[in-house]
Write a structure and sequence with these properties.
Layout (H helix, E strand, L loop, with lengths): L3 E5 L5 E2 L25 E5 L1 H7 L28 E3 L1 H7 L3 E6 L9 H15 L3 E5 L3 H11 L4 E7 L4 H9 L3 E5 L3 H15 L2 E2 L6 H17 L7 E5 L4 H15 L8 E7 L4 H8 L23 H10 L3 E5 L1 H15 L5 H15 L9 E6 L8 H4 L12 H5 L1
Parallel strand pairs: 5-13, 6-7, 6-9, 7-8, 10-11, 10-13, 11-12
Antiparallel strand pairs: 1-2, 1-3, 4-5
Helix pairs in contact: 3-4, 3-7, 4-5, 7-8, 8-10, 9-10, 11-12
The chain binds pyridoxal-5'-phosphate and zinc ion (ZN).
C-alpha cells in the first residue's frame, strides 16, 4: 500500500487517516440533511511511491488501495469482464465500443466494490457493525460482503426497493429496516443512527472509501484496454459516487505518471432524477423535484456527491444526458439482444445515454474508444421490464405444434 492522507475536496485541508472518518471536520459542519454533502474527503496517495514501485508487467494494485490487504474480506469482488460490443457498436455507429459488466460482481452490482473496502476499513478499525442507507444495491452489497466476514450489516432501505434486492439482503443475513419514505429519508436516518448509536457508516460519499472502492472499476478498464485510456466512459448517475470514483481512478493514474489524459466522463441520468445533470448544465445546484424513475438505483432527490460529480464531468471535458424511462427500457432490451449483457434499468441507463448521444450526428467519432459501464445485473429487477416483454404461450409437446 502506498501511504495516503485525506484531503478535503472543498477547503483542501489535509488530515491523517486516524484523524478523520467521514467528512472534513471544518466543511462537514455546514452539512445538513437535504443538501449534497459538504467537505467530502479524497484519499491522496504518495504518488512518488506508486511511480517507483508500480510495474505494468506485474501490477500491484494494492499500491492504489487505501486499506491494507490483511484486512480485506475473503469475498472476491471486481475484476469483471470488459466485453467488446461489436453488434451494439454497429447499431450505434461505433467501431470500438465496450461494455464493462459489473453486474457480475457477487451481489450483482458495482456497489460490491465500495462495500468491500468499507468492510475492510471496519475490520481495521475493529468496528463490528456497519450501517448503510441504500436504494437497494449498496445494501445487498454490504450484506454480501459482511456475510463473508465476522462483521454485521444494519441496513435502512426505502420500503419500495425491488423485491429481489430485499430478498438478497435478508438472505445474506443482514438486519434490514425498511423505512417509510424515500431513499433520502433512509439516508438521514442512518446518519442519525451512527451518530447516536455508533458503528461505521457506509453511506455513499459520506465514507470516503466508497469513492476509493468504486474507483477500481476505472483502474480495471485501463488495464483491460491494454493500458489505454478510453475516449469516453458512460455512467448512470444517482448520487454521483461512481462518476467520482472513475474520475479518481484516472486522476490517480495521471498523478502516478502512468497516463497523460483523462477519459471524457459522460453522466447519464433519468429525466425525473436529474439534479446532477441540471447542475452540470446550469452551474447551479437544485434538488430533483420528484424522482419517480423506474431505474430505482438512480432515483435520488439530493445526490450526496453532487459537487464532485459536477467537477468530474467538467474537468474531463465530458457531458451530461437525460433519458426517459421508455428510452432506458428500450436500451435495456437493445443491450441484452446485441451483447448478451442483461443490465438492470439503472445499468441500461448508461446505454440509453449513448443511444441518445448517437442520435445527434458526429457526437462521438466512429472510431472513438467508448465504454458503457453496466453497473448492475438485470435479474435484480425483472418486474420493470416485464411490462414490455411478451412471453410466448405454451404449446402441446408435439412437433406439429412447434411448426404451427
Ligand atoms: C448505485 C448505482 C448507480 C449509481 O451510482 P451513484 O454512485 O449513486 O451515482 C448506477 N447503477 C446501479 C446499478 C447502481 O446500483
Ligand atoms: Zn474542508
Amino acid at each position: 500500500m502506498a501511504p495516503f492522507i485525506y484531503r478535503c475536496t472543498e477547503c483542501h485541508q489535509s488530515y491523517s487517516r486516524e484523524q478523520v472518518r467521514y467528512l472534513c471536520p471544518a466543511c462537514g459542519k455546514s452539512y445538513r440533511p437535504g443538501i449534497p454533502l459538504t467537505g467530502v474527503l479524497e484519499a491522496v496517495f504518495d504518488y512518488d511511491t506508486i511511480r517507483s514501485e508500480f510495474d505494468t508487467n506485474c501490477p500491484d494494485w494494492n499500491l492504489f488501495c487505501a486499506v491494507e490487504p490483511e484486512f480485506h474480506p475473503p469475498l472476491a469482488v471486481g475484476n469483471t469482464p470488459l466485453t467488446k460490443a461489436g453488434k451494439l457498436g454497429a447499431e450505434l455507429g461505433l467501431t470500438n465500443l465496450w461494455v464493462k459488466n459489473d453486474g457480475l460482481n457477487p451481489s450483482g452490482s458495482l456497489k460490491d466494490r465500495a462495500s468491500f473496502l468499507v468492510v475492510a476499513e471496519a475490520t481495521r478499525l475493529g468496528e463490528r457493525r456497519i450501517v448503510a442507507a441504500s436504494t437497494g444495491n449498496a445494501a445487498s452489497a454490504l450484506a454480501a460482503v459482511c456475510a463473508s466476514t465476522d462483521r454485521e450489516a444494519l441496513i435502512f432501505v426505502p420500503e419500495k426497493a425491488p423485491k429481489a434486492k430485499l430478498v438478497q439482503m435478508v438472505l445474506y443475513g443482514a438486519r434490514v429496516i425498511p423505512v417509510k419514505g424515500t431513499y433520502d429519508d433512509a439516508f438521514r436516518l442512518s446518519l442519525e443512527y451512527t451518530e447516536k448509536r455508533g458503528g461505521l457508516n457506509r453511506n455513499t460519499a459520506y465514507h470516503p472509501l466508497t469513492i476509493e472502492g468504486k474507483k477500481t472499476a476505472g483502474l480495471e478498464i485501463w488495464v483491460q484496454l491494454g493500458f489505454q485510456v478510453p475516449d469516453a466512459i458512460l455512467v448512470s448517475v444517482g448520487d454521483g459516487v461512481i462518476l467520482a470514483g472513475l474520475h479518481k481512478a484516472f486522476l490517480d493514474l495521471q498523478r502516478a505518471g502512468l497516463i497523460e489524459r483523462l477519459p471524457k466522463l459522460i453522466c447519464v441520468q433519468a429525466e425525473t432524477s436529474d439534479a446532477i445533470h441540471n447542475y452540470i448544465q446550469t452551474g447551479h445546484y437544485a434538488d430533483a423535484a420528484n424522482p419517480t424513475t423506474r431505474a430505482d438505483s438512480i432515483s435520488v432527490c439530493c445526490p450526496s456527491n453532487a459537487h464532485w460529480a459536477h467537477r468530474a464531468v467538467l474537468e474531463t471535458g465530458g457531458c451530461s444526458v437525460l433519458v426517459s424511462d421508455t428510452e432506458i427500457l428500450e436500451a435495456q432490451a437493445q443491450m441484452a439482444r446485441t451483447t448478451g449483457i442483461f443490465g438492470e434499468p439503472a445499468a441500461a441507463t448508461a446505454a440509453a445515454g449513448l443511444v441518445k448521444l448517437q442520435q445527434s450526428p458526429h457526437c462521438l467519432p466512429a472510431d472513438a474508444c467508448v465504454v458503457i459501464l453496466a453497473t448492475g445485473h438485470g435479474l435484480k429487477d425483472v418486474e420493470t421490464p416485464l411490462s414490455r416483454v411478451s412471453i410466448p404461450a405454451a404449446i402441446e409437446p408435439r412437433l406439429e405444434a412447434v411448426e404451427a
